[in-house]
Amino acid sequence: xxxxxxxxxxxxxxxxxxxxxxxxxxxxxxxxxxxxxxxxxxxxxxxxxxxxxxxxxxxxxxxxxxxxxxxxxxxxxxxxxxxxxxxxxxxxxxxxxxxxxxxxxxxxxxxxxxxxxxxxxxxxxxxxxxxxxxxxxxxxxxxxxxxxxxxxxxxxxxxxxxxxxxxxxxxxxxxxxxxxxxxxxxxxxxxxxxxxxxxxxxxxxxxxxxxxxxxxxxxxxxxxxxxxxxxxxxxxxxxxxxxxxxxxxxxxxxxxxxxxxxxxxxxxxxxxxxxxxxxxxxxxxxxxxxxxxxxxxxxxxxxxxxxxxxxxxxxxxx
Amino acid sequence: xxxxxxxxxxxxxxxxxxxxxxxxxxxxxxxxxxxxxxxxxxxxxxxxxxxxxxxxxxxxxxxxxxxxxxxxxxxxxxxxxxxxxxxxxxxxxxxxxxxxxxxxxxxxxxxxxxxxxxxxxxxxxxxxxxxxxxxxxxxxxxxxxxxxxxxxxxxxxxxxxxxxxxxxxxxxxxxxxxxxxxxxxxxxxxxxxxxxxxxxxxxxxxxxxxxxxxxxxxxxxxxxxxxxxxxxxxxxxxxxxxxxxxxxxxxxxxxxxxxxxxxxxxxxxxxxxxxxxxxxxxxxxxxxxxxxxxxxxxxxxxxxxxxxxxxxxxxxxxxxxxxxxxxxxxxxxxxxxxxxxxxxxxxxxxxxxxxxxxxxxxxxxxxxxxxxxxxxxxxxxxxxxxxxxxxxxxxxxxxxxxxxxxxxxxxxxx
Lengths: 318, 414
Known about the structure:
The structure holds two protein chains of two kinds. By secondary structure, chain A is mostly helical. Chain A has two domains: 3-49; 91-315, MetI-like fold, CATH 1.10.3720.10. Chain A has helices at residues 3-49, 68-73, 76-82, 84-89, 92-122, 128-140, 143-153, 159-166, 182-207, 211-219, 224-235, 237-252, 256-261, 273-283, 287-310, 312-315, and strands at 52-53, 63-64. In chain A, helix 5 packs parallel to helix 9 (182-207). The longest helix of chain A has 47 residues, at 3-49. Chain B folds into two domains: 2-138 and 296-347, D-Maltodextrin-Binding Protein, domain 2, CATH 3.40.190; 140-294 and 363-412, Periplasmic binding protein-like II (D-Maltodextrin-Binding Protein, domain 2), CATH 3.40.190.10. In chain B, 43% of the residues lie in helices and 16% in strands. In chain B, helix 12 crosses helix 13 (322-329). The chains are: A mainly alpha, B alpha/beta. Chain A binds chain B through residues 55-58, 61, 77-78, 90, 148, 151-152, 154-158, 173-179, 264-268, 279, 282-285, and chain B through 70-71, 74-75, 78, 96, 99-102, 231-234, 236-239, 378-379, 382, 386-387, 389-390, 392-393, 395, 408, 411, 414.
């Protein structure tokens, strides 16, 4: 091939590449435009808005207040005076943070455990398809319907309490009307609803584990438990990583169950970050302050995700 | 061929665009944002009466779910909604809308408007002396009672002059656990349980001191302990609405807003319930005049973005005035405009209890505002309601809860 010919080919390749790139971008465009218009721009606006005082009215009434909104939500004056205990015991943000973190810490492992157990049970048994459907069903049901039904089940004289009473435990409080139990009822409903979805993910992962591995383990004399611990579980690591990242994020964004079942109550016992944001923005029309709280939420979710991805190596198969 | 077709289509579109405004010229449509438009009798009556007296104008209701009304309408307004009139459910909604610049000031229209029939209540809709809405309903709280249950128990009906202690005694007397009869019923709202403290006209819920609520919390807990009313925890979990609870026929008394009268009349008509009922003034504390109550205003404001403010003013001024009041009263709702005739119109509504006490209860001696217009009132509302739910669920004693209210509200103003 002469130099001229080679140049020609290179030129053609370049043209083709450019064309391909353009085509690729054109395929990405619809999604990216949607993301930009409905997510990226609002996020940037929210960052800016958190530095302003605004009641949602005329744009001309935007008032720059610097970090005042953050000072208000962190109750800095009071904290300086009375210590950090004040923030977590009395400030709305502190209480919402505490509740949300507690909810996340309990819900994530519990859901993973339930999903994994279900997946293992349903991996090879007869009639698995039927049961898989049964456990997946809550995930495709309407959230409102689920929450209303559970509210009835968790009433003072409801079926759940009757079962507990039948076990000989004297418990006759309405779950959602009790400030220690209310958050547990939220956790219960969340776990029950989501475990079916994560079960499906685990089932898919279980199917992907090569049979040779378990067979080799059997030959080496490993019992079922040892097989699970040393073969199955390590093989599921990537799935567990994915599931935990997705769940931590969705847990921090918990809103619907709380709004329907307890509305943040009794008192402030189930006040979550997002219900707090909603309250500030749409009930009290303080968009600046609400944006400041959502920035706190953003930072937390970002930090958690960075930490998780940082430890991704530990979760990979190799 | 194809080309001709597209030209034809384009032409049709152009013509139809031109034709619509031409047709709409003489038929004016006024859009009014309100809640429960199909199930609230007075809205139907008002629409009929207004359209009859204003030929060529049609009222079109935009229906918003009642419990989401404040949030949804505020979002609509922020989004630049151009509906002409917004009904005002809570006073502080209007105060917010005014601050946000959504409420059109009425000073250009109301120079010759006669406000006298509102007996001064219209000032709740004024900011710095400028009126922003016209009230058209004024609901105060009364005590509903089930006459059949009183008859069955052989107990005298409640009267218009009764203390809270006498009421509590009566509630216990009427409670019959075997038959599943409750002496009284408290809806879960703060207003249904302790708002009575403001009836003296001195206390308000924004006065930063909540010690005056203690008596009413104790009274409630005493009744709950005696089984004379359903427990708060159950009501909260089941979401049982007071209207269905009382209509069930096993509740002897119910302190509730006057709006429930038109609901009950409707229930009697459609057969949802078929017992006899009556109303009396709410009980009063010692030292407070009999017939004192608290209440709330419902009004209408003009959207700043409305393109037919003149017509909107025509509507809201009619709605609040004598004629609108007659339409509102004709179905059992209580208009804000109080004139000689109003009580007569109200008591002559078909289905309204015929006894003298019920008629007398239509004219309370004093009506305080449920929530006053005050600084940071929406924050105060949140705090008081949060602590209320803890007291009612018996997480804290009334004393502890009230101390917490006092402290947290004080912190707001530091």
